[in-house]
Amino acid sequence: MSRIGKTPIQVPAGVTVEITGNKVITKGPKGELSRELPETMSVVMEGNVITILRPDETIKSKSLHGLTRTLVANMVEGVHKGFTKQLEIVGVGYRAVANGNKISLTLGFSHPIELVAPKTITITQDEKNKGLLTISGANKEEVGETAAKIRAYKKPEPYKGKGIKYVEEIVQRKAGKTSGSK
Q: Domains of the chain (ranges plus CATH)?
């Protein structure tokens, strides 16, 4: 049996979960999320504990078991605590201006890049370190996708380390050219 799939999900106080057929709706202080789950999986809620059950031992059912449990757990955690990703802009002249879910990036191109994130995502900029962006929201997929879109405009390069990187990301540096004196 799947180790991830058989782990029960604790629903914290302040979060409500509605299960109708294969649709799960979670509501909490950070927002509301809903998702259609695979029809073969059954979601059972007893008290404040959610359990995911699979119908048989086929390979497809086993893989969907862990996936379904993780999706529901992320929904519960997202409406309760939320998810965040932090990006760091490194480079002379590189900067960002964040306002709500809109961001304007100056990354050495001939024009600034304007990006509008989904309405459920908020992008904030650190007051002290203007090169630090925090992307937060209830949906883990949207937070990760928005952070990846922003990073894709100027990935960190290995020689000087300039670009947009995740805060916890380590950029492997390369040695530059050396003079070939004889």
A: 9-80 (3.90.930.12), 83-166 (3.90.930.12)
| C-alpha span between 12 and 75 (Å, rounded) | 12
With tokens 């020689």, the residue in question is 159
Task: Give the separation between CA 2 and CA 4, rounded to whole angstroms.
Answer: 5
Q: What is the pLDDT of residue 181?
A: 63
CA–CA distances in Å: residue 119 to residues 24, 30, 32, 35: 21, 13, 13, 18
Query: What's the whole-model pTM score?
Result: 0.87
Q: What is the pLDDT of residues 123-139, one digit of tens each?
A: 999 888 888 999 999 99
- Identify the bridge partners of residue 179 per DSSP, sorted by sequence position: none
What is the SS3 assignment for 54? coil
